Amino acid sequence: MLSDLDVRHDRGDQHLPRARPEARGIVPRFKLTIEYAGTRYSGWQIQANARTVQGEIDHAIREVTRRREFELYGAGRTDAGVHALAQVAHLELYTDLPPAVLRSRINDALAADIHIRQIEKVPHRFHARHDAVSRSYLYQIARRKTAFFKPYVWWIKEPLDLARVRDAAAAFVGMKNFASFTADEPGEKSTRVLIEGLELAEDGALLLLRIQGSHFLWRMVRRIVGVLAAVGRGDLTVGQAAGFLDERSGIPAALTAPASGLFLERVMYAGDSGPGPLRGVFRVE
User: Fold this and answer.
1) Backbone torsions φ then ψ of 54, nearest 5 degrees
2) Taking 90 as the threshold, does the pLDDT of residue 24 lie above it?
3) Counted domains in the chain
4) Range of the domain at 68
5) HSE-CB of 72 using CA atoms within 13 angstroms
6) 65 and 35, same structural domain?
7) CB under 8 Å to 49, separation ≥6 — which residues?
8) How buried is residue 21: exposed, middle or buried, by Cβ count under 10 Å (0-12/13-18/19+)?
9) What is the pLDDT of residues 189-224, one digit of tens each?
10) Do 76 and 141 reside in the same domain of the chain?
11) How much is the pLDDT for 26?
């Protein structure tokens, strides 16, 4: 986690030199909406000696446009194995290609597990991360073994008490201290985060959890899911789960849910509606 959102929003810039204004005027800026299966990648952000989603898109843009100077900046940095249904990035790039043509050509240059859903021209001041007002994550728990969807779920064999999970989830909503739920170094940044909602729904053999908030700390989403699953199994009480918000504990780290079930679902900006109905990425009966 959006690591998953585990998205590590405050760890500096995201690579690449800014494009220089061209002789013909201001360099255009585009908003990209991107979906990807994160299984084969070491997260979103470009890393040395690792295959990443941003790195693959960067390479495709260079191949298509033959340009070397541009800015590609994501709204969130998903960790290795984490997926996205609608990651957002801004691209500052001088090109004469219309957005639809640029999108088509970049997609042709990308692997099948990364897809640019939309490219639209935006005002030059638009910033994918700084202008985002809310983000939502979807986590999929499978309650039966599935032969087809293992990379996109966490299979929990034990029965889960959903009433207990819902009771525990309520404690996480609001402005809370998530110091026990982050892998960031102590004191590196504020651990207080506003969680706007935490929804649960059953969809066939899937248990779906949606967490929506202003921003997220490194591995925060997966640790919340892991703690809620432990409550559902009966390994923790509702009170113990809530107590991790009051006193720092290493237990949430030990219970971190796997990356496979996590999706960056939506990044929202001023004027956007909410993430919509809660439903699975696919149907498991």
Assistant:
1) -60, -40
2) no
3) 2
4) 29-122
5) 23
6) yes
7) none
8) exposed
9) 899 999 999 999 999 999 999 999 999 999 999 999
10) no
11) 80
pLDDT tens digits, 26-67: 889 999 999 999 999 999 999 999 999 999 999 999 999 999
Q: Are strands 29-36 and 174-177 parallel, antiparallel or unpaired?
A: unpaired
> Helix, strand, or coil here: 213?
strand
Residue 79 among the catalytic residues: yes
Q: How is 15-47 classified by DSSP, letter by letter?
A: SSPPPPPBTTBSPPEEEEEEEE-GGGSS-SS--
Residues shown for the chain: 285
134, 127 in Cβ contact below 8 A?
no
What is the C-alpha to C-alpha distance for residues 166 and 226, in angstroms, rounded to an integer?
14
> 240 is written with which tokens?
């113990």
Domain end call among 122, 144, 163: 122
One-letter amino acid of 6: D
The one catalytic residue in 79, 184, 235, 272 is: 79
Assess contact for 265 and 86: CB atoms under 8 A.
yes
The one-letter code for the residue type at 226 is G
